[in-house]
Amino acid sequence: MKTDQPFLTDVKQLREQARASIDRGAVTPTYQGDVKQTIEILQSVLATEIVCVLRYTMNAIVATGLSSEGVKAEFDEHAKEEREHARAVAERINQLGGKPNFNPEGLASRSASQYVEGANLVEMIKENLVAERIACDHYRELIRFFADNDISTRVMMEGILVKEEEHANDMHDLLVAHEGKPMLASN
Prior knowledge:
With 187 residues, this protein is mainly α. The protein has helices spanning 11-20, 35-62, 68-95, 107-110, 121-146, 151-179.
């Protein structure tokens, strides 16, 4: 049965294409991105997420003070979520035929965010807020870059961005609570 909708590919053609490039795994002929470049970009995202896991984990362990227990729990929760992001990014790299780079050597130079521990609870919160803001801006840029050329990677990054924005908001709320300053500045 023929269709008048030009955007629908004939099923026979889809089957032929799938068999012809079976060695490419999930990367089909309709993939419009640059696979090599996408993998390189995602290696940086993976490093960023790993650095965040390490920083949040360290902060959760060493945070001290009368009101540190709630903050430590928040750091732990964020470390878990950043670990989930890293896993999703690594899985996407694998789907694209790459090998996720978990090598600690050069990790800091591959990451968009920095590993800064902070000397006290407020400094830890500030450093995590800075890192989350960096991730938000970086990931928004990547989402625009992937656009319709790599929808799966874009959607994954959009989901990660939502969590990073939540993390930034959480860190801001903690900062306000511990510094007693007013909420978000109006524009």
